[in-house]
């Protein structure tokens, strides 16, 4: 396959990551509006929110079987429009059952989408022969910032959910579908690590360290997304307006870290970059825990963004290197632990905060993120890195 086709495939997949970043941000940032629209009680809301990642995890496991028949590109081509339409359905209903159905469909489609997107990213990185995975996740972060900004506009102008979502879906739906024409999947290269050959099973004991790293990273991420505003306002005494700043700062530094992270991997190797990211993430949580005031807390969340930004993309990439002949299955199984971390993180911090203190609660995700330093060797040595660009892209097939 030509270099031009690889570049088109890389560009179209980056667009897909961006679209998903916009879509997911539009959902999670309007949860209060969704609760009000459907009259979901505070007691019932956690059930609705937990259902989304649980169903996404189920769909991620099922995707492993589907892509074995049709390839990840076909799954992504149809899952992404389905996610967008499910988002629109969330804004269109009025009865409680309609919210349950729409959010359930959203969760199922997101699981298939997340798994297939990262499968394609891993296979394209193999075809390029150098680290490009962080760039895809940078596109997702950029989409998240754009989606959160669009959600702010909708809330500021008191637009209904359907009115807010409709123009975004109307623009992104054809963009995603047309862009899917250029998806490509990298061919299978030679075994580079102690993985399994095509057709053999995934040795879970080899994948387990990466599963733990993924879980811990998402516990950290969900702590920021769910608790940063409350922490700043209730613990550090900030205003309501200032309490919105930490998550925005976290998203911006996540984007910056991912935008430059591939260069670091090529120069230093994935293990060094992941180890450094874990140390920065732990430092960020430590700064948050001891912050004397709001601006010091914001600084801690900012450092957190830089640290956590590199871990998840490199965890997917490491799974692809570990099982080069069966990377789709490895990515699908690893993706489940994305949702495990998301499910565990928010309740864990909330329970510790209520029983102990929210400052003390920040120590737990700090310790979990720092465990990644121990597992950094699972990401490969410096000599085994994708770097230098000396390899020519391998043969690719249309997915």
TrEMBL record:
According to the lineage, what is the superkingdom?
Bacteria
Residues crossing the lipid bilayer are: 12-31, 43-62, 97-120, 132-153, 165-185, 206-227, 272-291, 297-319, 331-350, 356-376
Q: Where in the cell is it found?
A: Cell membrane
Provide the Major facilitator superfamily (MFS) profile domain boundaries. 207-399
Kindly state which keywords UniProt assigns to this record, in alphabetical order: Membrane, Transmembrane, Transmembrane helix
Q: What is its main location?
A: membrane
Q: Does the keyword Ubl conjugation apply?
A: no
Q: What is this protein called?
A: MFS transporter
Q: Which InterPro entries match?
A: MFS, MFS_dom, MFS_trans_sf, MFS_Transporter
């Amino acid at each position: 396959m030509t270099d031009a086709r690889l570049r088109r495939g890389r560009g179209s997949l980056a667009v897909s990551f961006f679209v998903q970043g916009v879509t997911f941000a539009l959902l999670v940032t309007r949860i209060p509006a969704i609760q009000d629209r459907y009259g979901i009680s505070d007691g019932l809301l956690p059930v609705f929110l937990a259902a989304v990642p649980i169903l996404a995890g189920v769909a991620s496991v099922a995707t492993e079987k589907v892509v074995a028949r049709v390839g990840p590109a076909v799954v992504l081509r149809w899952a992404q429009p389905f996610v967008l339409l499910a988002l629109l359905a969330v804004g269109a209903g009025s009865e409680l059952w309609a919210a349950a159905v729409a959010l359930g469909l959203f969760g199922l489609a997101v699981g298939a989408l997340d798994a297939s997107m990262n499968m394609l990213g891993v296979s394209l990185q193999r075809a390029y022969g150098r680290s490009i995975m962080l760039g895809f996740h940078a596109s997702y972060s950029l989409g998240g910032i754009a989606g959160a900004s669009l959600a702010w506009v909708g809330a500021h102008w008191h637009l209904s959910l359907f009115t807010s979502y409709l123009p975004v879906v109307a623009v992104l739906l054809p963009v995603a579908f047309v862009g899917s024409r250029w998806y490509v999947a990298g061919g299978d290269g030679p075994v580079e690590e102690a993985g399994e050959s095509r057709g053999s099973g995934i040795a879970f004991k080899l994948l387990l360290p990466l599963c733990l790293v993924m879980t811990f990273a998402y516990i950290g991420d969900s702590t920021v997304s769910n608790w940063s505003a409350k922490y700043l306002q209730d613990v550090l005494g900030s205003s309501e307006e200032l309490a919105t700043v930490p998550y925005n700062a976290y998203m911006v530094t996540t984007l910056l870290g991912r935008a430059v992270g591939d260069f670091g991997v090529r120069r230093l190797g994935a293990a060094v970059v992941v180890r450094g990211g874990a140390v920065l993430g732990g430092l960020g949580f430590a700064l948050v825990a001891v912050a004397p005031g709001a601006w010091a807390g914001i600084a801690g969340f900012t450092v957190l963004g830089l640290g956590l930004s590199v871990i998840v993309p490199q965890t997917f990439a490491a799974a692809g290197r570990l099982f080069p002949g069966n990377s789709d299955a490895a990515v699908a199984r690893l993706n489940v632990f994305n949702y495990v971390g998301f499910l565990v993180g928010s309740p864990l911090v909330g329970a510790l905060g209520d029983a102990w203190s929210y400052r003390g609660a920040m120590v737990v995700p700090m310790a979990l993120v720092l465990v990644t330093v121990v597992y950094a060797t699972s990401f490969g040595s410096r000599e085994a890195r994708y770097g230098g660009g000396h390899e020519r892209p391998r043969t690719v097939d249309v997915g």
